[in-house]
Amino acid sequence: MVVLAVEDGDGGGHVEESRWEQRRVSVSGRTLRWPRALLAFALVDLVWEIIKSNLDADVRDGWPWRLTVLDASTCAAVVALLTGIVLTRTQLSQTMRPILSWSAVAGNSDRLDDSRRTVYLINAGGGRSVVHSVAYRIRASARCPEPGVVPPGWMPWQTAVDSLASLGLDWNEDVFLLHLGKGAAIPMTNTGTDGMELLALGHKALERLAALDVRIQVEDVLGDVYERQLQCVRPAGTSSRPSRR
Questions:
Q1: 102: nearest Cα among 172, 4, 22
Q2: Of 82, 122, 135, 203, which has the maximum CB count within 10 A?
Q3: Within 13 Å of residue 67, how many CA atoms lie on the same side as its CB?
Q4: How many CA atoms lie within 13 A of 129 on its CB side?
Q5: What tens digit of pLDDT does each residue of 56-94 get?
Q6: Residues 101, 192: contact at Cβ < 8 Å?
Q7: CA end-to-end span of the chain
């Protein structure tokens, strides 16, 4: 697996980042696993009936060949039906797949008057996307005058807000972080600034933050869950080098 090692300009070590691209993390058993399981069972039964039809009559009358779930013609029809369902479901998962995208601009925030960086989140795919879960990862800059209390790894929204406050950042003056709850819909659009305002940062926030990442998981119309990790903040002097694990 290729991992990207990102070294910040503060000399504060490096953070290994991977999987920044959107990926599917789970599929719905109701719409995919069950049809596949039924198709496998029907195929086994069809093979059983075909083999049995080629046996002598006296052999077919004995066990275990007397066992019949569906006759060959009915089983073939069921296999054709389930194959169509699985193929249609696969096609739908491609055409209705949400595509989480984000953009960042200077200013233009509706929440922060003096925003230096505003991040918008959109769904540029062909189907709906409903929030399944959201987590945040924060790393303070080595130049931050206040050490703060920032837990390592991913954290929920309230912990992220408390961590930002511990760095001396004032809510709605230095930073705004949208609380995306489970079930919220991501707007479908191809224009970045038409999306929802996810994050806004003032000058002080950009100085005191070395990294701020957002991990969003959304559910599509078929019940599949997709994940995208957003690198909302990186230091100006960031240098990246590929390494392998």
A1: 22
A2: 122
A3: 7
A4: 28
A5: 877 777 788 888 888 889 999 999 999 999 999 888 888
A6: yes
A7: 6
Residue 18 sits at the vertex; the CA angle it makes with 145 and 235, to the nearest 5 degrees, is 30
Structure tokens at 240: 């990246």
Report the percent of the chain where pLDDT is more than 70. Answer: 87
Using one digit for the tens of pLDDT, what is the confidence trace for 137-160?
999 888 787 778 889 899 999 999
Residue pair 228/100 in contact by the 8 Å Cβ criterion: yes
For helices 72-95 and 34-53, the axis angle rounded to 10 degrees is 150
Give the residues across from 230 on adjacent strands.
Answer: 214
Instruction: Check: CB of residue 20 under 8 Å from CB of residue 227.
Output: no
Does the model's pTM come out above 0.90?
Answer: no
Tokens (6 digits) for 31: 């719409």
Sequence letter at residue 147: P
- Output the pLDDT for position 61: 76
Tokens, residue 64: 């275990």
